[in-house]
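Work Package 3 (structural annotation) set out to generate three-dimensional models for the target panel prioritized at the project kickoff. During this period the team completed the workflow that converts sequence records into discrete structure tokens, so that structures can be stored uniformly alongside our sequence database. As a representative example, we reproduce one entry of 306 residues exactly as it appears in the project archive.
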Amino acid sequence: MAYINQYEYYTNSEIAPTDSNWGSYQYVSLKDIVNNFMLMYQGNHELINNINRYQVLFHAKRGIQELNYDAMKEIKILQLDLDSSLRFILPSDYVNWVRISQFKNGLLYPLTENIQTSWSKAYLQDNEANVLFDQNGNALSPEFSEVDLERMSGGKTIYLNEGSIFNNEEGWCVDGIWYFAYSVGARFGLNTETANANPTFTIDKKAGVINFSSTGGTGSIVLEYISDGMENGNDAEVSVNKLFEEYIYAYIKYTILNGRLGVQEYVVRRARQDKSSLLRNAKLRLSNIHPGRLLMNLRGQNKWIK
């Protein structure tokens, strides 16, 4: 970014939002990256010449995306309330999740992913189990399948509470009332993957939602996730940490040389090695290994384990 005075940094010249410049110095914009590459890394006396700006822009975006997947992992956080369908709609720039928590009583309770299917698509059928179709020949589907309705209305779960006489028993919660049958382990055993008091979740990537178990009821969910850094297609907002700036230039240089005809193999190999070494150096810089943090972690070795 361009250099600004302290007044502009702290107040944005009294223009809302006044916090838009906070922390901005640690980033370099996509526009500056492309401009710098066109000025300094291509020309008649450089390895790369006769390159179009849109090509540099494309490779710069790809390099920033790879950084967000692999190294930077700048986490975004979104809080939403669940409705009666117990679904959390994934953000528009969602790529992968880091942690999902339930916000309750002022605390964040980390939730566990349930790899068992808790959602399903269904088709309408007649009394003879034949699929029903519309006038265009497409199968008719209900709004929710039986699997979804079971999850939302109080599906089968495992009740764990050491202070209760029903501890370790398998049961059903219907309209807030628990019904129990056999002790856990009598038939199926305890499912340790989901054995906790908090609700569980399953991500339906195709539908773009997170489905939650009925044990949690409606509530507030906090999603921590990774994006690709493209800021919903707004190039003016795309930026990268300055620790990775030199790597982006090396990435653009390598991808252009690697895709060109007539470039010697040793030139491409050298460009690839430069890219890899700069990425490794940037990761070490960004790891921010602080002696104080290391000391606090080492103090944990003195804990007594009963």
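Residues 77-226 form one domain.
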